[in-house]
Design brief:
Radius of gyration: 15 Å
Number of strands: 7
Bound molecules: adenosine monophosphate
Strand order of the largest sheet: 4-3-2-1-5-6-7
Largest sheet: 7 strands, parallel
Length: about 180
């Protein structure tokens, strides 16, 4: 698969279904535009939802999974990449992707997207970074990053590399710029 996007998303089963819907909409649209999706690849929460969606639409879905989570692996992935640790998993989730997208998620998702932003700042990641700010979910993160810029902790250039998009379509449109 030439064009790959990593998606970071919730492993929780107790979130508002609207967040699963926007995640499904995004992976379906990305898949129809010819992108392979790389994800955490388990049956849990939004990860399971996007796996179902990609299975339905025939999308190419690569799961990157630590061996200690093997009982949670989604059964119908196109490819599985096993890792020993969560740190290795984060590296391989990003590897050779043209973009990463943080869908609404918790601290695991936050960790994945912020590590990617730190690497981009250090020129160790060269793709695009999107945050799917569905219903303003990521406004508190935007405010934190703006606070970092105001206090000189982060450059405006780095901030501008993290694209806050309101809809799945906006991410897709921006991917191809
Ligand atoms: P969270 O956003 O805290 O729900 O964590 C989900 C994100 O972190 C996913 O993108 C996964 O890569 C990773 N992750 C954390 N916990 C789990 C889990 N129990 N099962 C699968 N992936 C997880």
């Amino acid at each position: 698969m030439d064009k790959k996007i990593a998606v970071f998303c919730s492993a929780s089963f107790t979130i508002d279904p609207k967040y699963n819907k926007v995640a499904r909409d995004f992976v379906r649209a990305a898949s129809l535009h010819g992108y392979g999706i790389v994800s955490g690849g388990t049956i849990k929460g939004t990860m399971g939802e996007i796996s179902d969606e990609l299975k339905c639409c025939g999308g190419h879905h690569i799961g990157v999974i630590p061996r200690f989570m093997k009982e949670y692996v989604y059964p119908d992935l196109s490819e599985v990449i096993w890792t020993e640790t969560m740190a290795e998993r984060k590296t391989l989730l990003r590897k050779d992707t043209c973009a990463v997208v943080a869908l609404p998620g918790g601290v695991g998702t936050l960790d994945e997207v912020i590590e990617t932003l730190a690497l981009l700042h250090l020129k160790q990641y060269h793709g695009k970074i999107f945050v799917l700010n569905h219903d303003g979910f990521y406004e508190p993160l935007r405010q934190l990053l703006e606070h970092y810029v105001r206090t000189g902790m982060m450059t405006e250039t780095t901030m501008s590399r993290m694209v806050f998009a309101d809809t799945a379509e906006e991410v897709i449109g921006n991917l191809e710029d």
